[in-house]
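Summary for the funding panel

The consortium committed to producing paired sequence-structure records for every protein in the target list. Below we show the first two records in order, beginning with the earlier of the two.
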Amino acid sequence: MIVETPVDGAALAARAADLVTESAEDAIAARGRFTLALSGGDTPAAFLGELASRPLPWEAIHLFQVDERVAPPGHPDRNLTGLLSTLVERVPLPAANLHAMPVDDPDLSAAAERHAAELARVTGTGALDVVHLGLGDDGHTASWPSGDPVVDATADVAVIGPYRGRLRMTLTPRAVNRAGRILWLVSGRDKAGVVARLVAGDPALPASRVRRDRATLLAGDGAGALLQGRWRPAGGGQPVPW
């Protein structure tokens, strides 16, 4: 795992957008297409706003979701609500290139199967170019609660829960770990403890099921505070692998 510690939220957003832009340019040059799966939450908002300002060839970009809560369309609990306002509505992304998780379907299990098939169709191999992840204070990522069998799922998309009051649809570790690049964005000193556990490879964390050899962790605005002396900060030399 590559670990970088941007100083604040603005630096975190800019660095994440740089890495995604780099991956997009490489993928489009190689295959004419770039696939990106995005997580929800508060931390990604600045990153998505920064990404919206980049002059990317959006007609060649396909957006997926890492996970989604089962909630009414437009509800603030829906990750799609924030994704639309911070990114999709600000860029010329073709409507067919947004592959939202179909959580409005009354048969969620069948919808998850169809979504997995759509992922395979668009990517060709089932491997996304970049998967963006967050990290909960309880060590979850995507919608993988501690103790949930989703971490051992053999499908690419699964339905779990209720977790924190909502059923959820999520990419599974199988799908996430095929990605060409995995990009963690974690912000805030309150996440410092769980970040240190993730970097140490604590097997008790669901997030530790994510492969490390293709992962970059951006721990900004104090989230990397407990890593002091064990990393090189972004902009201060090359980051070191863990």
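The next record, for a separate protein in the list, is shown here:
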Amino acid sequence: MQRIKIQRQGDKVTFNPADQMVDRVTDGGSFIFENQDAQESHQPQPDNTTNTWLDNPILPGEPSTLITANKTGSYSYHCKLHPAETGVVVAPNVITIQMEMIRTGFNPATQKLNPTTDSGLFVFLNLDQSLSHQPVPDDASQGTWFANPIVPGAYSAIKGLTAPGTYNYHCALHPDDPKEKGALTVPQPQPTT
């Protein structure tokens, strides 16, 4: 479960971190807000939706109730009581790198992204406790996705793909391992009627 702190610095109140990633695979996409502002209550709410996260403001020194990002995507939010206070919660598609017996592999090996519903967001989580890994596109013209290898137990940076197509990838550190290959697919947009 991730924690987003509501903190005051002088006259300014901020969410820390202002952009928080939540993982729907390992922790169910759950997060809470902790109101560390000793002066005021706050009530974070998602933008552009009729849904609410919290029925009541969070009192000074108190945590919120548990909130869950039920779907993959990016959730901009603001404080209902102080609209200038803003932040983002991102729940990307998660592809894990796991040890299976004596080989490492990507799980799922093929991940479908949907720019309409999840902004084409994805992240890798290295669950292989012995080795670093660095997924890169097979097509070198697509550049690299991550500047550094993903160390054991860590997440990659969040990436997004929105152009339709299939993006085959492999581990740059272990290019000859057949299990360290995968694909991300972005479908063609469906025509609206």
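Regarding this second record: The radius of gyration is 19 Å. The chain has a mean pLDDT of 88.
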